[in-house]
């Protein structure tokens, strides 16, 4: 099924000048960049994005990190895009990520793990609406 997903290249990877390298990996796997922008996210946006984690110990530090510097936000499309992106990203903890995944290559720790990708088609729809600010269904 052709679908879209949200990817955020996090401040650690943007600082390390890895935007091009990371985008190349997605493109090499057939995903298409539909929309993108760079920004320093507002705190309220990150709080909403990570709402599911608000009771976790790492949440305050995660919000600080994600609002500390620029991120690169992308809408990627393709066959099974949500799952394909998750495979290419690798495990949340870079120490457990398969070789050649983005987190294996560019992640430093479970927090500084280079990229975020939506975890399901439903989450992708909600996250795309949050970050791209329009009804994503209407576009497709
Ligand atoms: P992400 O895919 O963006 O989704 C939630 C984020 O929380 C995750 O990547 C990590 O950056 C962060 N995270 C998850 N578990 C931990 C942890 N144990 N300590 C710190 N950060 C974490």
Describe, in plain words, how this protein is organized in 3D.
InterPro entries: NDK-like_dom, NDK-like_dom_sf, Nucleoside_diP_kinase. The chain has 140 residues and is an alpha+beta fold. Helices cover 43% and strands 20% of the residues. The chain has helices at 11-15, 19-28, 43-49, 59-66, 81-89, 102-106, 121-132, 136-139; strands at 2-9, 32-39, 71-79, 115-117.
How is the secondary structure organized here?
Elements: E1 2-9, H1 11-15, H2 19-28, E2 32-39, H3 43-49, H4 59-66, E3 71-79, H5 81-89, H6 102-106, E4 115-117, H7 121-132, H8 136-139
Antiparallel strand pairs: 1-3, 1-4, 2-3
The chain binds adenosine-3',5'-cyclic-monophosphate.
